[in-house]
Amino acid sequence: MDSFPGSALAIPSDFALWSLVLTAPLLVWTMVSDLRAMKIRNVTVYLIAAVALLAGAITLPWPVLAWQMVQLPIVLGAGLALWSLRAGIGAGDVKFLAAAAPFVFLGDLRLVMVILAGALIAGFVAHRLAKLSPLRQLAPDWESWTNSRYYPAGLSLASALAIYLGMGIAQGQ
User: Fold this and answer.
1) Which of 10, 70, 137, 153 is at a distance of 20 to 30 A from 79, taking alpha carbons?
2) Which of 106, 99, 121, 129 shows the shortest CA–CA distance to 22?
3) In sequence order, which ranges of the chain are alpha helices (DSSP H)?
4) Of the candidates 78, 87, 85, 101, which has an alpha carbon nearest to the alpha carbon of residue 157?
5) Mean pLDDT across the chain, nearest whole number?
6) What is the reported pTM?
7) Is 148 in a helix, a strand, or coil?
8) CA gap 79, 85 in Å, rounded
9) Closest CA relative to residue 29, chosen from 162, 140, 141, 169
């Protein structure tokens, strides 16, 4: 079944609800940390992965949870390969993507890629516009304002996960 607006998503709505409620503070922290210091902390990604395990243990059958959790090392391996090739992805971004992978149901992968692409574009444009606006004065010491080479992708990665989980609550199984 296609996972686009108007059709049901593969993610179970109760799993999406538990996941979003428990990850929301961590997602906000990811955004702020990456904007402020251009870092996504290990403790944050450990907690996000733990939430996937906890929400899954509460709402998913064990075989489904096991398959969801297998996605974490697969994404981590692929991400580290890209990072080692200096493909423009930071180590924190790789860790976040790996921790977020268990939340994504394979039937929704195309939709998640669209959400992620949109979040990356919107986040990049919003960050660059804020950098040039008076909004910058609200947090003048953030490293992301002065680091012109890199974009704090945690802003977009966390937003994309929140959007997907929100859609899962509304349109999930």
Assistant:
1) 10
2) 99
3) 13-37, 42-59, 62-84, 91-100, 109-131, 143-146, 154-171
4) 101
5) 93
6) 0.93
7) coil
8) 10
9) 162
